[in-house]
Amino acid sequence: MTEVLSPSSAAPNPSRAERPCHLPTKRAAVADVHAPAVALPLRFILTGIAALLAGASWLTARPIILAGYHYGPEVVAATHLFVLGWICSVIMGAMYQLVPVALETRLHSERLARWHFALHVIGFVGMVAMFLAWDMKQVGHFGSVLATGVGLFVYNLARTLARIPRWNVVAAGIASSLGWLSFTILAGLYLTAAKCWSFSPFEPLAQMHAHAHLGGLGFFVMMIVSVSFKLVPMFTLSEVQNHHRAGWSLGLLNAGLAGLFVTILFSSPWKIVFAFVVATGLAVYGWEIFAILRARKRRNRDWGMRYFLTALALLAPVSGLGIVLAWPQLPATELTTQLESAYGFLALIGVVTFAILGMLYKVIPFLVWYASYSKAIGRNKVPALADLYSPALQAVGYWLFVVGLTLTSVATALGHASCVRAGCGVLLASVTVFLANICKVLSHLVRPRLEPLVFKPKPAAQGTA
């Protein structure tokens, strides 16, 4: 059950050289029991990839978004394209697939999920357009549509979590992230209303930063941390080494974020304390992930895991930069303002996006393989999961992303528009390579590669007539 997405799973009875596929009928049947229809997560994921491509193109065409001051219509619009269009779309779609399978239960309602998709797309597209026009009244209208979709998502997963057979650290972390997501949406609607009616007692930048940390840490990072306690052991053939340590990492993250939100909102110097609490939680998390990897049985790491583990390693510099920016006596200069932009960029694109790309190299091939080949097991020879994509393209995309991320982050900190454009161009090339590889995977939905099933006869025993 826990290895239902594992690419190393092997098919039934013939000898290893003669096995026609690499996913067993039994485990495919388990996925069928718990997982929703394949089209449900795919529609969210493909929408998210389209938003990522649009966002990377936008940054390449308009580098001033990163090289200039980080509070303005175009900056806010582009940020919400990445946050809502790319990251939220993919995480939500993946959760509809992974939560039922990983926690061994059924999704409460696929029908609610389909309604959520429609509301989500209308909401985030409208919000990005209205942020660009700086029409806050219409932002509020489209934000309410998006919030309704998020409400359906939270309700659907909450009802799903309510009937899981065993409550564990993964379920607790997912529940926490759903709570923070709800709070983030409410805070966003409050900010929009405050802009329309000018009644907020908080400083505009303080409430924007508090809102950003709710979503970035509370939903994105918390969800990545939670599901990685399931997915990293699954894909490396290991297991959580210390459940208390995993629980402490979630507890420190929750406590640190709660304090950080309040202290940022009130511009309190105590925010440095809670920044250290968050960093400590991430350090404990890294300790547990290191222990899981050290105990792994699968020594080789494929490119999907390299993407994901590189993203986790980037939590260290992001945390360090966050502590520096939380320092009470830090002067407000052009450099520190640009460091705030670099901090947000490195967190959203370096940590969250890189982690998602790695997991999509696991999730999308399985979804496509299951839709195209699961019913052909035992009747035809079908390809392995690894045959659906190109490892060479994965490697090219990885190194392009690392180079583009490094160049763009440094250029953003220095406010150098030409270098930002160059770095974003490299990132766009990486995203294009990723898209080409995903199209190679998706081609199996249109034209499955089925071959006749042939078993080699066993040679006759010597001495027989």
Poorly predicted segments:
1-31
What is the averaged pLDDT score?
A: 88
Q: Could you give a short account of the major beta sheet?
A: 2 strands, antiparallel
Number of helices: 15
Helix content: over 70%
Structural class, by secondary structure, is mainly alpha
CATH architecture classification name: Up-down Bundle
Summed up, the domain count is 1
CATH topology: Cytochrome C Oxidase, Chain A
- The CATH homologous superfamily corresponds to Cytochrome c oxidase-like, subunit I domain
Concise structural overview:
The protein is an all-alpha fold and 465 residues long.
Descriptive overview:
By secondary structure, the protein is an all-alpha fold. It has a single domain (23-448), classed as Cytochrome c oxidase-like, subunit I domain (Cytochrome C Oxidase, Chain A, Up-down Bundle), CATH 1.20.210. It is 74% helix and 1% strand. The chain has helices at 25-34, 39-61, 64-67, 73-102, 110-133, 136-161, 169-197, 204-236, 243-265, 271-294, 303-313, 315-326, 334-373, 391-414, 417-446; strands at 380-381, 451-452. A two-stranded antiparallel sheet has the order 1-2. Helix 2 (39-61) packs antiparallel against helix 15 (417-446), helix 4 packs parallel to helix 13 and helix 12 (315-326) runs antiparallel to helix 13 (334-373). The radius of gyration is 23 Å and the shape is globular. The model is unreliable at 1-31 (pLDDT under 50).
